[in-house]
Amino acid sequence: MSQRSxxxxxxxxxxxxxxxxxxxLSHGLSPHELLRSMGAEERFIVPLSxxxxxxxxxxxxxDHISDLDFLDWEDETAVAQLTSGGFLxxxxxTIVRAGAxxxxxxxxxxxxxxxxxxxxxxxxxxxxxxxxxxxxxxxRVDYALHGSxxxxxxxxxxxxxxxxxxxxxxGFMHHDEEMPDVAxxxxxxxxxxxxxxxxETEASLPAAAFA
Length: 211
What we know:
globular; nine-stranded antiparallel β-sheet; alpha+beta; 27% strand
C-alpha cells in the first residue's frame, strides 16, 4: 500500500490505490446506508482501517488469526464479530469500507467493483458515481441518477460508452495530459467540490465483507 499522504481532492486515490481501486460516491446517504444498499446487513458492519481490510483480503484461510496485526486473537468477542460478518476464517471476495464527506457517502474497494452493480440503488436520493480501475489498468465510470442507471463509459475511449456520452450527460471531456481516470477524478473534484482526506480513508471506517 502507498504511504503517501496528500489532500488534493480525489486524484490521489489513483496513486494510493495504484494496482486497482473502486471509488463510489452516493449523494444523500450515510455510510451505513450505502453499505446496506450494497447488500450488507447492519449487524455485520464493523469498523476497519485500510490496513486491517488489506490483511484480511490477502490472508490464506489456513493462516492463524494471530498473524493479523490489528486483532487480539484472544479477544473472543472481536473474533466472533469478524467471523459472523464473513471476514473470517476464509478471506472474503471483497471488503467495502464507507465514509462521508460533505453531503456524500463514499466507498472504497481495494481490488473489486461490487458497487457497480448496485449503483441504481445507491442513487435513490440523487446522483451516484462509481470509478473503477482494474489490475490491468483499464478504467470504467458508471453514473446513475434517482434510482436509474444513466451511462457507463471508459474515460478517454468514447466508443466504449453504454448510454449517452459523458460529455452530453456530465459535461466531461478527456484530454491527453493525464490518465483518463485521474482526469475524471479531477473533474469530480471540481463538479462536486469534494476534498477527501487520505488520513481519514486510512483510519477505521464502517466496513462490510461480501462473499
